[in-house]
Structures are given as structure tokens and as C-alpha cells.
Amino acid sequence: MTSTLLLYIILGILTADFILEQFLDFLNRKKWSPILPKVLDGIYDQEKYQQSQNYQKDKLIPSLISSGIGFIATVLMISAGGFAWVDDLVRNYFEHPIAIALAFFGVVMFFSSLLGLPFSYYSTFVIEEKYGFNRTSLKTFILDKLKGALLSCFIGGGLLALLIWIYLQTTTNFWWMAWLVIAFFMIFMAMFYSSLLVPLFNKQTPLEEGELKEEISRFATKVNFKLDNVYVMDGSKRSSKGNAYFSGLGSKKRIVLFDTLIADLTKEEIVAVLAHEIGHYKKKHTLSGIFLSLLQTGLMFYIFSLIIANPLLSDALGAKQHGFHLGLIAFGILYSPISTFLSLGMNVLSRKNEYQADNYAAENYDAKVLGDALKKLSVSSLSNLTPHPIYVFFYYSHPSLLQRLKALQLIK
């Protein structure tokens, strides 16, 4: 294989991904209709439904422009030697492979962030503001970007440096040693993400004593679930949309409720949502998800180790010298078809897990109350309740609301 042929393969994969993305968006748009579908009677009224349609349309245009610019920029960076130019630039200042790689990705990520910043700002302060969702101040927006950048530098840069160091020490054992490092990091983050990283962005306070906590305690006792850590997060600091999530493993597990969720739902509806989250734990979905993610990561590193030393990867990007960082970019694109296939499988499994968690909440608490909670959350966030089935298959980790209500036997 020549570097020219490899370049065409890389550009072909990028183009195929972009076309598929646009086709799926087109299918999803075809499902939009100004007339309230009969299946949504009792969930949306005509006015609210029209508002949800407008919300989806307003989000679509900047999304199309952003993805189009991103695609063109990536193609130009590859075909016109942009990545090679950045590589030459950083090699003028650094000699060690780790320093070169960190500087290279620092430059690339900086300009990538600048490219995406206007769209992020528009989404937050124009679209989300228009529909009453945004509660983010400009100060919070800027601080979030800065904190995210610093975390990327320290965590992402630290992991990258460690992986390159391992590669330089031993290419033979690189893949499984790198896998062990990432596996440890993934498990560590699964256990401590909520207690270590979330506080950098949001406050989490223990749920106050009262009727809600008593109802939660009664349910937890009923299903024999030890629940010492229930926290309320100030999600209203950024958005009016409600949410809840389960994090951690073993004694470090905790359930986090957004304050917006508590404000929007009744006491019983909150417990139903909580029952769903506990269902994930009881069905061991968290553990199985981590296990499958670890297997995927191991597969990726194994394939990566087979080709990373090949100078064709850097040649295809127009670089004069081969580098780990250039090989990583080329590999990331070449691996994307495999990644897409694996993601489809994970989404299928995830949707199955959501049905099981819903069923657990229905059996152990109340199906109708859970359905009411799901309806409120979907309507209040103006969700698209009629997505195209193929779009759901490719992108949704959760079933659509109507699919979940049908599974709970709350609608026909």
C-alpha cells in the first residue's frame, strides 16, 4: 500500500461518515410535522408540540453549519498538509517525542476549540435562551471553557504522555500495558468522578431531611438497597432541564438529583426516577458496561499496536517524519468504522438496559408514576418525541419516550 492510497482511504472514511450523518439527519427531519400526531395526545398539546418542533429546527441549522465546517476543516488539514505543518512547527521548538506530541495536540485542540466556540456560545445564549432553558451567565460559560481546557491538558495530556512513554520503552508489550493504564483510569473515574470532578463545576449537597428523603429511604429499604449517598446538584446554575444519574461502585456509589428535577417532579415521581436508577444497579448494568468498555479499549489498543510503527500513517498526512501523534490521528480515522459498529452494539445493549431498569421501577414502585415523570421530563425539555427509527438505532442510548411508554403498557 502506498501513502497516496492510504490518504484516499482516510478521506473516503471521513466523507462516508459525513454523508451518513447528513442522511440520518435528513431522515429525522422527514418525521417532523406541524400537525400533532394522535399518538402524542395527552402528552403534548398542539402549542407545546409546535414549540418543540421549532426548537428542533432552530438547533438544526447551527448543527449543520458546525458539522460542515468541521468536515471541511478536517479534510483540508489532511489533504493540504495542515497536520504536517503543525508537526513541523512544534519540531522547531521541541525534540523529545512526548513534548512534540503534547505541543502538537495543544495547537490542534486550541484552534479546534476556537472553531467551535461561536457555535457553543450561540447554542447557549441564543437558542437555549430563546426557549427559556439557559441559566448560564457569561462568567460561568467562560469559566467552564477554561476549566474544561485545563482538565484536558492535565488529564488528557498526562495520559497521552504516559502512553507514549510506555510505547518508547517497549513496543512489544505496548498494547496491554497501555490497556492496563486506561482500564485503571476508567475504573477510577467510574468510582470517583462525581466526588472529584463534578465539584469543579457544580455544588453537590446531601439531600435534606424531609418527606422526599423519607420516601426515598422507604423505597431503598423495601428493595434492600443500601443508599447512604443521595445528593442534590445545582443544575439550575446552567439550565432549567432536569436530570438524575447514578455513579460510583461499591461503597462509593451515589445518586445525584438535579435541583431542577426536584422542582419539576412530585415526590412520588422523583422516587420512580430513583427506582429506575437503582434498577440499573440491581441489574448490574454499570458493571457490565464498564467490562464491555474495557474489552473495546483492549481491542482498540491491540489493533493500534499493530500499525502505529508504520511510517505510512504519517506519510499519508504529508509529514516528513513519523510520529506517534500523527499515527494516532490517522489511526483514529481508520478505526472509526470499527468504532461505529461497536457503538451500535453498545447502543442496542444500552436501550435494552433502559427497558430493564424501567421494568424494575414498574414492578417495585409504580409504572404510571414513572411514565408521568418521563413525560414531564421530555415535554419540559422539548424533546423530539417522534424520531426516525433508523436515527434512534444509530444515535440513541435510550429508547424514545413513546417506546418506553409502550413497554410500560401505558400507551398502545
TrEMBL record:
Residue positions of the active site: 277, 358
One GO term of the biological process aspect: CAAX-box protein processing
UniProt keyword terms in alphabetical order: Endoplasmic reticulum, Hydrolase, Membrane, Metal-binding, Metalloprotease, Protease, Transmembrane, Transmembrane helix, Zinc
Localization in the cell: Endoplasmic reticulum membrane
Peptidase M48 domain span: 206-409
Signal peptide: none
UniProt keyword annotation of Transcription regulation present: no
Keyword Zinc found: yes
Cofactor names: Zn(2+)
Domain CAAX prenyl protease 1 N-terminal: 33-203
Annotated transmembrane regions: 6-24, 60-86, 98-127, 148-168, 174-193, 290-312, 324-344
Note accompanying the cofactor annotation: Binds 1 zinc ion per subunit.
Bilayer topology term: Multi-pass membrane protein
Alphabetical list of PANTHER family matching this protein: CAAX PRENYL PROTEASE 1
Similarity field: Belongs to the peptidase M48 family.
Protein name in the entry: Peptidase M48
Species name: Labilibaculum filiforme
